Every structure is written in structure tokens, then in C-alpha cells.
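Q: A reviewer asked whether we had any structural model of the full assembly, not just the individual parts. We don't, so I'm hoping you can provide one. Inputs are below.
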Amino acid sequence: MKSRILVDFKATVLEFSRSPSAIFWTLAFPVILMLLFGAIYSGGGGGTYNLHVQDFDDSPYSAAFLEGMNGTGLVKIIVVDNTTDASQYISDNGLTSFLIIPAGFGANLSAAENVSLEFRMDSGSQAALTNYNVIKSVSEQMNLDVQNVTSLISLDIAPLVSDQFKFLDFFLPGVLALTIMNSTVNYMVFTIVEYRNRGIFRKMMTTPLKRPEWLASRILWQMVLGFISLLLIMGIGVYLFDIAVTVNLMTLALILAGTALFTAMGMAVAGLIQDEQGAGALAGAITFPMMFLAGIFFPLEMMPEYLQTIAKAIPLTYLADGLRDSMIYGNMAGAWFNLMVVSGLAVVFAALGTVLTRWKQE
Amino acid sequence: MVEAHIEVKGLRKEYGDLIAVDGIDFEVRKGQVFSLLGPNGAGKTTTVEILECLRTATAGDVKILGHDLSQSSKIKRRIGVLPQGFNAFDLLTVKENVEYFAGMFEDSVNTDELLSWVKLETRKKDLFKNLSGGMKQRVGIAMSLVNDPEIVFLDEPTTGLDPGARRDVWRMVRNLRERGKTIVLTTHYMEEAEALSDYVCIMNKGRIIVRGTPREIIRDHGGSPVAIVRGAGERGLQALSPNFPDCELTDADVKIPISNGRRVSEILNTLDNAEVHYDEIVIKKSTLEDVFLKLTGQEFKGGEEDEE
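A: Here is a predicted structure for the entire assembly that you could use as a starting point for your response.
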């Protein structure tokens, strides 16, 4: 007996291979995103940022601290004269970050007392973010070297990104989550609306093909696409930008659950709106805000409180977080939690989608 | 008596307050070309879509090849359907499309032979979206035959086609009939039903208003043939009215019903004797269209819109 699922799967692959727009959005778009952001955030020419510093301490400790930062190769220290007014200097030179080492830094450190560094930064700047991470990691290093205790040096600023990770590490799983969402939601919406409006479903219904068989084939194909995206994005991340990524069973499970979730969401959208343009607009209205609010392009911690609350209500957030946990942070407990959320949402949307998409007419 | 392939009794379909099909009965015999004829909104498509197991009936008793409609998977294996406004996958080729639908059935016929039969053997590798309307319809007919069905439903197969493509479809329908298929055709083209059908049901507003072979229907309801003397004008009317009091003038044409033993030769002689000039004489038989007009009092309007 021939499998109808395989017959439909084969047709799906053929249709995909002949649709330039589908290929662009599922395969080329994530590659372009990775290359673009990779080029921007891997630092470009020389890969170092200038870090302007006023050193009011001028002790061996502060000198060692500055030397330590220089040694990372990520920043180039530029010492600013102590008589200069910091605020004036920052605005004159258009700086996005500025470090002030207070007097008594060395003395306090040697006496094992807490010291504070003053770091002014424009939180929207990647250069500032890199500088911040360098300061943070070098100061932690100093703590260990000097006193063998932690948190003597504190930075008067809230941490933005886990310091041992680069932005691209953070970005890669997000692109994967984004691709799964975009490709699946758009594919389902446009296919269902097109098949319905052009009477293709009606023709299918006159054959023994059953709706679950059709759905199974389409979900299967979206999962395959998810894995192809994974390979593409990882290939670029690992070989071009040297991102340390691991793929484990949890990653695969998240891709499967994410595909199921967004397939169901696409079905629900297509069921809600009858005409092609309306469905396309609604698909866009759902995926676009998710893309920006789910912490794909910048960490959620950088967003104001109320946007963070919204982000928590967005399904894509959990897929992106889960993939990040499993691929980058190695946080299996976090990944497990996110997998559960994504799977739960998939069930909810599947129920909604089934109710809303009528395959059989009245 | 030939066995019945389809039996319909008291079929009703309501959408809320709207009654799309209002309790109809009919029977389709094996090997027959059976047509449901009627204007848009008459309930033809609703009726066949219930028979095709695409819609559910509100009430009524239907048997297809001996099966109840509840046994839809058994029915689907033995029927072929060309739906109204048929479309296939744009980005698959002709051959891939037909293979797809062949793949949906446990047993299917050779798709190459099928494509030769619909005269598409040279277009097998063309994408569906690049075909003309007539070719698309032929792909649809090929698709409806992949499982070698006993009954073929053709729902408005020639709507929107040019005359040449329409003739192609007619030829295929006749050929299918010769091969012993039972064919259920819906159409709003009167001449199509007249040319193809063994049996016709004319539907209007959800009911069957008349039924029979096209010949019977016209004989019983269509009235007599009419001779039309084109271009005879006022003079023609004056010359003819003494012998043919029921003749009438429309524009420059004189129309004379030829029944009750009247003969065309009498008309010709009368015209010659009076030396009336005219362009031509045509004999127009009554058509199903006239029957529809007579029975419903409304013009028969076909259109391209789908009926709901």
C-alpha cells in the first residue's frame, strides 16, 4: 500500500523547491541575518573597541587592572587626563562608554575592602556592552588574583548579558527560533488559505486522503526545514564566527515542539481569516511583533519592565529561551521548562486550529 | 431495467433559513449521462457535493453504488470528481499533479495512458500554472479518472472555457460514456445538457421542475418549432397573416409556429406568390432554454460565479 503521507510529502518538497519566496524566507533569510549580525557584532576591523579611562588611583593595582583589560585583546585602553571633565569629554568625543577608577582603588583592594568602579555607558551600544563585559571579567579575575575572594570590586551598573557569552552566542538560537516561527506560520497560513480558496482542499476531499494525514505530511516537512535551518545557522555560526554551540536531544525536541506549535498557530490564523490578503496581514501582525519582543535581536533585560512582561506572554520567547538554554548555556533545567511551555502551547493552539479550520464544508 | 448507480430520495439541505435543496428525488442508472441543469443558485452543486461526500445533507436518503453516505471512504474509492472551479497544485507539473492524486488511492490506473487520452502527453512536464484554461480542465478530468471510477461527477466542466475547449470536453464525456462510465454532469449551459445527456433534471430554487430525456422534455414542454423568415418585414407579415394568423413580426423577422400539420413549403409558396423579399428562412427547434422560460417565467441566466 502506498503511503498517502509520503505522496503528499513528496509534492510538498517539489512545491517548496520551485517557490523562490519560500526558499528565501526559510533558508536565505536566516543566513543573511547571521552573516549581517555576525559581521556587525564580531567587531569588524581589528575587533577592538576603544575604552577611555580616567585613573584617579594611579597605583600598581589600577595599572595592573588596565593592563589586564588590554591583555584581553578586546579593548584598547586610552587613558584620559585626570583634570579633564568626564561629561564634557564624553560628549565632545561622542563616546558610548567611559570608565572612572576612583582614588583609593588600590588601597582598598589591598586592605580587602570593597571598591566601586564608575562605568558610564550607552546601553544601546555594542561597543559599550563589550567594554562592560571586559571590565567585568577582568575585575573578577583581579579579585581572585589579589585576594582570593570575590566581589571586592563592584561595578555600579546592572549586568546586561551574561558576561562570559558574546552577543552572537545569544543571537544564534534566536535566529533559529525566529526562522522556525516565520517559515512555519507563513507556510501554513498561505498554504491553507490558497488551497481553500482555489478549491484544492475540495479536490483532496474527494479522495481517501484524510486531514490528519495531510497535516502529518506538512508538519513533517516543517520539521525537516527546521533541521535544515539548524544546520545552516550552526554552520555559519561555528565556522565563520566561532560560536560555541552544542546540539543535544533537548535542542531537537525543542525544534519539534516549536514546529508543532507554529503549525498549529498558522492553522488557527488561516481558520480565522478567509481571504488571502487578510490572512497574510494577520500572519504578519502576529509574527512581526513576536520577532522584536521575544528577545531575538537584543536581550530581554535591556527592555523596559512592561515590555518584558509582554515578552513573557509571547510563545516565541520560550522557544528562543529554550534553544539558548540547550545550545549555548547548557542549562538543561531551563531548557526543560521552556520545552514544557512550548509543548503546552502547541496543544492549546492545535485545539484552537482544529476548531477554526473546517476542512469539511457545511 | 438497468441497475441504479445513484438513488436519491427526499434530499434536503438547509443553511439556517436558506433552503438550498428542497426535497428532491432522482435516480441515475448505470452507464447514463445524467445532467442537473439550472441557473446559478438552483442547488445543483450543493446536490452533487452531497453525493460526493463533501457536504452533509440535512435530510434525505441517498445510496451511491449501494452505499449509504456514511460509508464515505468506500464511496470515494469508486467515484471520480471534477469539482466546480477546479484547480490543482500550481507548482507541480501536469504529470506530478496526476501522480499525486493517483497516489491517494490504493489502486490507480497508468497515468501516462490517462494523459495521452486527455491529449496532454506533450505537456506532461509543464507546470500546472502555465496551462490554458482548457488544458487545466483536461488535467482535472484526468485526475478524476485515476482510480478508474464507476461514477464520474463533472461539476460545471466547461464554465469559462472557449468553444474549442468546450468541444474537447464534450468529446471526452461521450468517450467516457462509450466506456461504460456513469456520468453526473452539472451545467448551466442548456445546449451542453441537450448535446450530452441521456437524462436531464432541470432545477430551480432547490427543486427539480422537470425531468426526462432532452427530447421528451422539449416535446412535452417546449412547444412547436418556429420558422423565422429573416428580413421579410411588414410586407411579409401582410402576405402571411391570412394563411397563418398566429404569425408575428419581431424587428424585421416574421415568426411562424410550424405545428398542426403546417408545412414549410406552404410558407415558401405564400412568400413567392406575394413576391416578398427576405434574407433567409431558418427553422428553430424549441430548446431546453425555452422550456425553462416557459416553466418558470424567468430568463435563464448562467454566470461564472460559484453558487453557495
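A: Points you may want to mention in the reply: The domain at 224-285 of chain B is CATH 3.30.70 (Alpha-Beta Plaits). The mean pLDDT of chain B is 89.
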